[in-house]
Fold:
Amino acid sequence: MAAPAYQRIKDFLLDGIAAGEWREGERIPSEPELARRFRVARMTVNRAVKELADERILSRAQGSGTFVAPARQESTLVEIRPISAEIAARGGAHRAEVLALGAVKAGEALAAELAVRRGARLFHSLLVHREDGRPIQLEERWVVPAAAPGYLDQDFTAVTPSEYLVQVAPLARAEYRIEARPPSPAARAALDLDDGEPCLLLHRRTFSGGAAASVAELWHPGSRYRLTGHF
Amino acid sequence: MAAPAYQRIKDFLLDGIAAGEWREGERIPSEPELARRFRVARMTVNRAVKELADERILSRAQGSGTFVAPARQESTLVEIRPISAEIAARGGAHRAEVLALGAVKAGEALAAELAVRRGARLFHSLLVHREDGRPIQLEERWVVPAAAPGYLDQDFTAVTPSEYLVQVAPLARAEYRIEARPPSPAARAALDLDDGEPCLLLHRRTFSGGAAASVAELWHPGSRYRLTGHF
DNA sequence: GAGTGGTCTAGACCACAAT
DNA sequence: TTGTGGTCTAGACCACTCC
Structure:
């Protein structure tokens, strides 16, 4: 199962940008040059570059070339990015620590949210994400086994659960809920909070193939995390 | 300057959906059929349909066809939905109380946000919104006078500031920021908070005609208000 | 004029779904 | 088996920018 050519080209460009090979405002290789390098038709390169331009990672100018777009500082709620990408975009170093990974039985609330029976087996993970060493997110997740059978075998320090789930269970829909909350005991322990510091809680339920696939609770320190966006 | 073929096909499909020719979940003509009808290559049809699928107006399934996607509702964050409409949608009774209305001088932070000089005159309003008698939002707002000259003469118990501003200063753009915060003194006094109850703070800056027009700080009791949405 | 991206063609092979 | 979408080719012409 090789990745399609256009995807390989996208990855090549994204890796180059991440590695600083082309910086903001700099020109990337032209379509004909990429076509030669990857031995594909120009239309295939065009698709790869066009998609990155649609995602505003590149900007194109007819007659002059394709350039790395200025980094956008927007974690739009409508398109929530993995925390690792968000941190990388700010130039920070991301590290994840797995606090728990295993199977649990669904309680009443979870059973209702995931449309399984009470006591059903669910995969469960608990991670802390750090930016430059400081905890920035406590991620607790419950996953319906059928939606991601290999969930428990993953190394979530390398690929975040959110990234893994997107790969194995194409995301059809998601619901979210944002709240200000006093920290839960687990969040207090994991997030290195000041006295009286509240948490920004992002609760998310995802659907894949028409059925509920996972529920996530993302706890963030109120003093060090905010959601931003624009329209 | 004729529109490109792929755009004509997109328009054809959008018009058909708008006219009810194909309803939610129904199949639209296949790529080969559209190619015949428009006398273009299948790749051109593919581009048109793929773009509409990327925009989630259509959904595609290999082997079975292309379907009209279920209409998506906008997240409450993406639109500026006045709190009064939000409450009405839940079946609650909305009442607003004006705590302050007048002119103030811009401090450093506000001057920077609104691109005016320090000490410049700004309109200022402070309101509490109640749902069935319980305070649900403390709304503090600073407005550039040029953007809404009649701001101070309004009766904000009848029309909320947000509704008034949308009328007089067509909204071009907005930035928002969502945070979890301990209550400010004003919020503590106005929102009838429990001990240790945090606030969900929505900070919003609006632009009209290219210039910053207003800044709003919307404080909500963490236990009684959440932002929700889906995609 | 040379190089760039924007669009388009007329095929092709494949994976997948419905039958 | 037939029809669907997913991907790709090897060209082409055009509008535009830069030199």
Remarks:
- The beta strands of chain B are 58-61, 65-68, 94-105, 121-131, 134-143, 173-181, 199-208, 211-221, 227-230.
